[in-house]
Amino acid sequence: MKYARLTKEQFDELHAEFASFLATQAIDKAEWDSLKENKPEVAEQELDVFSDLIWEGVLSRAEFLEHFSKNHIFLFQCFETHVQSIVLKSLVPETDFLTQEGLQWLSDNMFTETIEMKVGKKVFTEDRNASIFELIQQGAFLSDGQLFKQINSIIES
Question: For the chain, how long is the longest CA-to-CA vector?
Answer without folding.
Answer: 65
